[in-house]
């Protein structure tokens, strides 16, 4: 029987409001790709991202357009050449991984490693707000070992100081989402170093990265929006110390594995991150993140409700996925 691909758009409410330098949202809009061979079914979830020109409708259309090729037997390797990197390819790629695992009875992790996956410590994200509001968020989560703090505007030093004082025992990642400028980056980096920040993501807008070659890296700098695939890495050498790999950017687990391995070869530290999605989107990323230097897979923790079955979170510790969820 030919494989059948289907696509569904789903929405999950966020617990409160999630705010970054580019705006706020109150729900996670995701697309689920399902591929069935009549006996087994594989699923993959993606999160279309407006920053990269993606829409729910456009991603759905792109997935549906590849359905005839999937029905004819297209594999993951051929998929990389047939679709560009992005959310649509991620959903299809992860659905193919899941289908292969269900058919063979061989879990995905066995294809990736000689040892079973372990639980990981994930960052927990604090939304952008006033210094006072962010300090309140930090106090509520001061028992978490790793916090990721959204910044990227005026008064960021006050925000950083407020959070570090409210959660003195937590390691802290700052995520500027391209919100700093060449006028304030040196001052902001100096403050971050003084306050013991562990990592700073994407301080400057894409295209302004060259400035980082002439700025002392008082805190390690991590590329996010500036890196999508392995082809981006060479030009980032010497500008960033780490890269943030997201399945939706890379276009699936298959491409993300290549990106991770090439980045390691070039000496980058590895962070595995996510968009705000459900456990189905996080599951393959948990396997990718085994051995990563930083893990930011807290999407389901930011939702008012997750899908069931979901990943098991114990505080900031996330367990590997069960086969009933994915892989």
Automatic annotation (TrEMBL):
The keyword Isomerase applies. Its EC number is 5.1.1.-. SMART domains: MR_MLE (SM00922). Its cofactor is Mg(2+). Binds 1 Mg(2+) ion per subunit. One of its GO terms (molecular function) is racemase and epimerase activity, acting on amino acids and derivatives. Mg(2+) binds at residues 175, 201, 224. Keywords: Isomerase, Magnesium, Metal-binding. Residues 131-222 form the Mandelate racemase/muconate lactonizing enzyme C-terminal domain. The active site is at 150 (proton acceptor), 246 (proton acceptor). Belongs to the mandelate racemase/muconate lactonizing enzyme family. PANTHER family: D-GALACTONATE DEHYDRATASE-RELATED, ENOLASE SUPERFAMILY MEMBER DDB_G0284701. This is Dipeptide epimerase. It comes from Mesorhizobium zhangyense.
């Amino acid at each position: 029987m030919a494989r059948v691909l289907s696509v569904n758009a789903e929405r999950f409410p966020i617990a409160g409001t999630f705010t970054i330098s580019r705006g706020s949202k109150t729900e996670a809009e995701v697309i689920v790709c399902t591929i069935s061979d009549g006996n087994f079914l594989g699923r993959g979830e993606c999160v279309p991202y407006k920053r990269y020109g993606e829409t729910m409708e456009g991603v759905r259309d792109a997935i549906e357009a590849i359905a005839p090729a999937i029905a004819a037997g297209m594999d993951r390797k051929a998929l990389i050449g047939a679709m560009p990197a992005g959310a649509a390819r991620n959903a299809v790629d992860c659905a193919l991984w899941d289908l292969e695992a269900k058919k063979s009875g061989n879990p995905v992790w066995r294809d990736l490693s000689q040892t079973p996956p372990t639980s990981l410590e994930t960052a927990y994200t604090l939304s952008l707000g006033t210094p006072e509001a962010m300090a309140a968020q930090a106090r509520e989560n001061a028992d978490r070992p790793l916090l990721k703090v959204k910044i990227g505007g005026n008064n960021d030093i006050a925000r950083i100081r407020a959070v570090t004082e409210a959660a003195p025992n937590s390691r802290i990642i700052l995520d500027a989402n391209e919100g700093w400028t060449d006028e304030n980056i040196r001052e902001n980096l100096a403050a971050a170093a003084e306050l013991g920040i562990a990592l700073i993501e994407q301080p400057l807008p894409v295209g302004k990265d060259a400035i980082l070659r002439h700025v002392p890296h008082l805190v390690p700098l991590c590329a996010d929006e500036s890196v999508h695939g392995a082809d981006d890495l060479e030009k980032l050498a010497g500008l960033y110390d780490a890269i943030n790999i997201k399945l939706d950017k890379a276009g699936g687990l298959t491409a993300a594995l290549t990106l991770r391995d090439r980045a390691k070869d070039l000496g980058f530290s590895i962070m595995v991150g996510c968009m705000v999605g459900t456990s189905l989107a996080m599951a393959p990323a948990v396997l990718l993140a085994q051995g990563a230097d930083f893990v930011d897979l807290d999407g389901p923790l930011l939702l008012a409700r997750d899908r069931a079955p979901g990943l098991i979170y114990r505080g900031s510790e996330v367990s590997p996925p069960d086969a009933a969820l994915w892989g």
